[in-house]
Design a protein that fits this description.
This protein is α/β, with parallel strands linked by helices and 577 residues long. It has four domains: 1-26, no CATH class; 38-267, Rossmann fold, CATH 3.40.50.1460; 309-404; 464-573, Serine Threonine Protein Phosphatase 5, Tetratricopeptide repeat (Alpha Horseshoe). 56% of the residues lie in helices and 9% in strands. It is built from 20 helices and eleven strands. It has a six-stranded mixed beta sheet, sandwiched between helices. Helix 2 links the parallel strand 1 (40-46) and strand 2 (77-82). The longest helix has 67 residues, at 334-400. The protein is elongated, with a radius of gyration of 37 Å. The N and C termini lie far apart (105 Å). Residues 1-37 have low confidence and may be disordered.
């Protein structure tokens, strides 16, 4: 049976010739048809809102959205993950890998933080708890592992795009310095594009799109093949000036694909052979008879052996030379292939030894880290035992002296609470929550300067906290710094419109500064949210009375006293009478 399913012997003469020609044409179209027939799968990941980063990364989400849309227009089935934790990201990776078809095209795009450990690259999900290099391997997604999974799915072409060459936000926790990514290996069938060369760092612009991905999306929309598109991106970035590190490309493609889904994949061209020197024109030779098959076969075999050897040389691996020798066990290139295989095996053994040495160094470093942690745990244990001994001693003294009352116990609890907060900050100077809680502790005890200093640090670590701005606003207002108080209250309400506590705080600021109508407005908005808010009722009553509305102001103040008989004394501590 022919490809069409019909027997050619049914059609005699010229009709059979026509049918056979049609079948051959159909077969040719099946082989060289549009690339849309191939499976195209893409994974597009954006990680931006890392808790350990100083701020949300401005470009990954916008870049990933543009990449996903560009790839869908080019016939890719796209799996996406935005601001995903490890479990969610792992699920997306598994779903993407299942969509990859044998001999298809698989493309991975990641924008976020990448970290190298032991010269291996890991993609960091949003909820990674990274305190040491070993945590990276535990919580990160291995780039090598991801590419190996695509190889097991027998993807024909694997393309990797990493916009992850950023300064490691966790490096303050590492003993060893980590910047940018490690060199990205390119096994056969892989092409990789990184926003910066190994060890390089690219800063984020103002957003929402990076120049790197903007240029990449533009190239995807052209007729370029993937290798030419990546080269065009690299060249365009290199023209942005010496202060912008150009992207890096690693590749070992045997064939390439075009982003245009209507264009077929093509074999990569071998390096051109040097042109032979021109020879003087030869005298015309008499026609000779065409050699028969037995005369041309050795020549074809030699040409095929030469092509296969060139393929093995481009791969440069022992496996490639073994494959060549399996197909050509004898011949003029056999000795050269054996020698090249031995060199490649030696290089691979050396590389494996280097990796083993690096692994041992990493394990030794991890052991040292664990020893240091164990030593710290023992020291903490000794300190805790001493603290408990002190507590036992104080308890015995209290039992022996009945005059030590509840106030003393509360004082000890407060000292213990402050010590715990101090210890949290000592362990992690970037613990924004500990600064916030210590600021509240100081504020509740009337230590305004210490409270403001702690809220300053909390806001530097988390400039999007309306609670911290509101607390600092109140403290500035009580201290009489009304300009700073107003600025903090305004920012708290910008971050959280209608924030009841901030409206009450700004009402106090306006009351103390004489902006009485503004005070009435702020207190009124607060009372819309809680009609039994004694502070807002008393503050509005004072403002209305000062504006001359004695009746309405008196009713507000009477309601406030019914809720809190000491409200006038509280306002006196704020400097308002």
């Amino acid at each position: 049976m022919s490809r069409s399913g019909w027997s050619a012997t049914r059609f005699p003469g010229r009709l059979r010739t026509i049918v056979l020609a049609a079948c051959a044409a159909a077969a040719a179209l099946a082989v060289a048809g549009p690339a849309a027939a191939e499976g195209r799968a893409a994974l597009v990941v954006a990680e931006a809102a890392y808790p350990d980063s100083d701020a949300v990364l401005p470009t990954p989400v916008g870049d990933a959205g543009a990449m996903a849309e560009a790839l869908r227009r080019r016939g890719f089935t796209v799996t996406t993950a935005d601001n995903a934790g490890r479990d969610t990201l792992k699920t997306a990776v598994d779903r993407f890998v299942r969509t990859v078809e044998p001999d298809g095209v698989a493309l991975v795009f990641f924008a976020g933080y990448g970290i190298q450990v032991g010269r291996r690259n890991y993609l960091i999900p949003l909820d990674a708890r990274v305190w040491s290099e070993s945590d990276v391997a535990r919580d990160g997604i291995s780039v090598d592992g991801l590419m190996d999974a695509l190889a097991k799915r027998q993807a024909g072409i694997r393309a990797l795009i990493l916009d992850a060459s950023r300064r490691n936000p966790f490096e303050r926790r590492f003993r060893s310095f980590s910047q940018g990514l490690a060199p990205i290996p390119a096994p056969p069938g892989v092409i990789a594009l990184s926003a910066a060369a190994a060890g390089g760092v690219v800063g984020d612009g103002a957003g929402p799109r990076s120049p790197f991905v903007t240029e990449l999306v533009r190239q995807i929309a052209t007729d370029a093949s993937v290798d030419k598109a990546f080269e065009a991106v690299r060249d365009a970035m290199a023209k942005r000036g010496p202060n912008v590190p150009p992207p890096a490309i690693t590749s070992d493609l045997r064939e390439t694909f075009f982003f245009d889904p209507d264009r077929p994949r093509v074999a990569m061209a071998a390096p051109p052979a040097p042109e032979p020197k021109a020879a003087p024109p030869a005298a015309p030779k008499p026609p000779v008879a065409k050699p028969d098959e037995s005369e041309t076969r050795p020549e074809r075999e030699r040409e095929q052996a030469t092509r296969d050897f060139q393929t093995a040389e481009r791969a440069g691996t022992a496996a490639a030379y073994r494959d060549f020798l399996k197909r050509h066990p004898t011949g003029p290139l056999t000795e050269k292939a054996n020698a090249a295989q031995a060199l490649a095996e030696a290089a691979e053994r050396k590389a494996e030894a280097r990796r083993a040495e690096q692994d041992e160094q990493q394990k030794a470093e991890l052991r040292r880290d664990e020893e240091r942690r164990e030593e710290q745990r023992r020291a903490d244990s000794r300190k805790e035992e001493e603290r408990r001994a002190d507590l036992r001693k104080e308890e015995e003294e209290r039992r022996a002296d009945p005059r030590k009352d509840e106030e003393q116990r509360r004082g000890e609890q407060e000292r213990q609470r402050l010590a715990e907060l101090d210890d949290r900050i000592r362990r992690d100077p970037r613990d924004e929550g500990a600064y916030y809680e210590r600021g509240q502790f100081h504020a509740q005890r009337g230590d305004t300067a210490a409270a403001i200093a702690d809220f300053d640090r909390a806001i530097r670590l988390n400039p999007a906290s309306p609670e911290a701005y509101n607390n600092r606003c109140w403290l500035h207002a009580v201290a009489g710094d009304l300009r700073r108080a107003r600025s903090d209250c305004d920012e708290a309400l910008r971050l959280r419109p209608g924030f009841l506590d901030a409206l009450d705080s700004r009402g106090l600021v306006n009351l103390k500064s004489g902006a009485l109508q503004a005070a009435v407005s702020d207190y009124g908005e607060a009372l819309k949210r809680d009609a039994r808010h004694s502070s807002a009722l008393y503050g509005r009553g004072l403002a209305l009375k000062r504006l001359g509305d004695e009746a309405t102001g008196g009713r507000d103040m009477t309601s406030a006293f019914a809720l809190n008989p000491q409200i006038d004394k509280e306002f006196a501590t704020y400097g308002v009478r």
